[in-house]
Structures are given as structure tokens and as C-alpha cells.
Design a protein that fits this description.
mainly beta, four-stranded antiparallel sheet, 10 strands, about 5% helix, globular
Length: about 120
Amino acid sequence: MADGYLTTHVLDTARGRPAEGVKIALYKVSDKSHRKIAETVTNADGRTDSPILPKAQFRTGTYELVFFAGDYLRATGQSGAEPLFLDQIPLRFGIADPDAHYHVPLLLSAYGYSTYRGS
């Protein structure tokens, strides 16, 4: 049984605060499929209320988080002209250690983003 889990959060670097209300989808990716396994929305702290991939479902493999940044940027008046420079942001990553905590945050502004493996 795996003891690891996956968490994420979104920080709005342009406004200097957590990004509340960002929809996030998680996909399990393989050679033959790209299957959605979870969907959530960030809370007032820019985090999800629970791990996006809890211990009971945590497995090694390739995953993709899709952050619906465009909806958030429009809602906060930061979107600019259409089409948006950033709309849906996919982050594909691998989970190799079934017993680790993987934290994949997104630092977001209307014209750029960054990510890293956090703790």
C-alpha cells in the first residue's frame, strides 16, 4: 500500500496572494490513455481542501495537472485581450516514489507561470 500523496496550490504572483477559485483537473497519463481521475477548486488559501491524489489512490506513473488559469484571470480582472496568453496550463510530471509526498504548486500571473516540486 502506498503512503504517498499529491497536493498542489496556486499563488497569484501579480496580486501577491493565494489564488482562490482556480479549477484544477488531474489526469493519469499512459501510452494509450489520458484519463481524468480528479477535479477540484482552490480555496481561500489557494490550496485544495484535501490532497488531489490521496494516499488510497496514489500510484507511481505519469500524471498531468491542468490549471484553468484563464477562468481565474477573467474573474479577477487580469485577463487582458482575448484570446488570453495563458488559459489552461497543463503540467505533466512523473511520480516515481510511492511513499513520498509530491507537492506541485503553480505561481501564476497573466503572462507567465512557474512550478517546482515542493515539500
